[in-house]
Design goal:
Elements lengths: L1 H8 L1 H21 L2 E5 L2 E3 L2 E10 L7 E10 L13 E12 L22 E12 L6 E12 L2 E7 L2 E3 L6 E11 L2 E10 L5 E9 L2 E11 L7 H4 L2 E12 L2 E14 L2 H7 L9 E3 L2 E8 L5 E10 L3 E9 L4 E10 L16 E3 L2 E10 L4 E3 L2 H9 L1 H4 L10 H14 L3
Parallel strand pairs: 5-6
Antiparallel strand pairs: 1-3, 2-3, 3-4, 4-5, 6-7, 7-8, 7-9, 8-10, 9-10, 10-11, 11-12, 12-13, 13-14, 14-15, 15-16, 15-17, 17-18, 18-19, 19-20, 20-22, 21-22, 22-23
Length: 413
């Protein structure tokens, strides 16, 4: 009786003695990873730690660091297993994943470690998930509630932001998922941009392979397309996509689309009096796309029609180190009789009320190339030969051919 009373009175000393000598090692053995604990103490039934850090082991992440931990736990449970869930509150967690690697160079998918000890109920006030090299997606500031029992983790996330390299961030409204033995099932998620745009969807991961269905409404295009593209495109995007076997494919339509500072349009406008195509609104702007595992974005069935009398059709691809596009650009013939004079110097044909020219784009995002400038420059150099036609409402066929022939004769060989 006296011994029991004495043990109760000195329980904090016993618990703290054990913590300093054994807790980090016990956790390391249970977790199968290197563990570092700092500022740990047990007082009045509450276990506190200033820092918990773990790394190594067979985990998907490279390291995990948690600060200001708090757990209400009986001192005797510190010395052994318990069937009661351990409730832990954490002020902040920083999870770092290994650097991005190409799909064909990835190691085997890790088997998620599950502890045979007591269940865990974890609440994190602020979390950050990122890759060591800064690539890929980053979660910052999210509140997380995670419950682990046997080999099942259930997660609920709210708040914070989700962002990718060089893309506008999305705010997290909610995210619900379950991990069972390393396989993920994301029942649903909802994200929103800085304005009224939303993105929703669901996903699964089995054997390291993701599949997903995603849709978005009134979203900022900067969320969806690379920075080199989004900096020239405004409006609100609506569409849907499916992720299968590493490829994300879908369609996008941009309402209220506007392009700005697109060089090839500015060059074409230089052929016409009193027309400025630095900023162009689009009545129709839509395309299909596929995002490859290596980050390459491919676009096809592009159709864009502007009330300014411009139309674009074509396809292309955008990657970190390379741009490729094959476009047909049309300028509306009505009210622009001078355009006929530039066939075939610049325009190849007239169809559907437009004069069309083919544009090839290549190079890199930092130094793009195109085959339009030289043809526009030649057309501008020969513009005086066609100047008399500008006051004509419509160039007769014979006159058009005559002017076109003159331009061809004057073209440098």
């Amino acid at each position: 009786m006296i011994a029991a009373g004495t043990a109760f009175l000195v329980r904090e000393d016993i618990a703290n003695y054990w913590i300093k000598r054994q807790l980090a090692g016990t956790l390391a053995e249970a977790l199968g990873a290197a563990v570092d604990l700092q500022g740990v103490a047990w007082k009045d039934g509450v276990l506190r730690a200033q820092l918990f850090r773990m790394s190594g082991g067979n985990y998907a992440f490279q390291s995990l660091e948690a600060r200001d931990l708090r757990a209400v736990v009986d001192w005797r449970d510190l010395l052994g297993a318990s069937e009661q869930p351990l409730q832990v509150e954490v002020a902040a967690v920083d999870v770092v994943y290994p650097p991005h690697v190409e799909p064909d160079k990835r190691p085997d998918t890790p088997s998620y470690h599950t502890s045979s000890s007591r269940p865990l109920d974890l609440r994190v006030a602020k979390s950050r998930l990122r890759r060591a090299d800064g690539r890929g997606w980053t979660v910052d500031g999210a509140q997380v509630h995670a419950v682990q029992s046997a080999d099942v983790w259930t997660l609920s996330v709210a708040g914070g932001s989700l962002s990718a390299e060089a893309r506008s961030p999305l705010q997290i409204e909610h995210f619900a998922a379950e991990n069972r033995g390393g396989s993920w099932s994301i029942a649903g998620f909802a994200l929103k941009d800085a304005s009224r745009g939303t993105m929703t969807g669901s996903a699964t991961n089995h054997g390291g392979i993701w599949s997903a269905e995603i849709s978005w409404q009134d979203l900022d295009p900067a969320v969806l397309v690379p920075a080199g593209v989004s900096s020239h495109l405004g409006g609100r995007a609506t569409g849907e996509a499916v992720l299968k076997e590493g490829v994300l494919g879908g369609k996008i339509e941009v309402e209220g689309a506007e392009t700005k500072s697109v060089g090839l349009f500015v060059k074409l406008a230089s052929l016409l009096d009193h027309e400025d195509w630095e900023r162009i609104p689009w009545r129709i702007f839509r395309f299909n796309f596929s995002m490859q595992p290596d980050g390459r974005m491919e676009v096809d069935d592009l159709l864009a029609v502007s009330p300014k009398g411009l139309a674009v059709r074509g396809n292309g691809a955008f990657a970190t180190e390379r741009i490729d596009a094959d476009l047909r650009v049309g300028v509306q013939a009505a009210g622009r009789p001078v355009l006929a004079a530039f066939v075939p110097v610049l325009f190849s044909n007239r169809e559907d009320g437009y004069y069309w020219t083919r544009v090839r784009i290549g190079g890199t995002p930092a130094a793009p190339t195109e085959n339009l400038s030289t043809r526009v420059a030649a057309a501008l150099a020969l513009a005086p030969a066609a100047g008399a036609a500008k006051s004509v409402v419509e160039i007769p066929g014979a006159a058009s051919e005559a002017i076109g022939g003159l331009l061809r004769e004057m073209m440098p060989r």
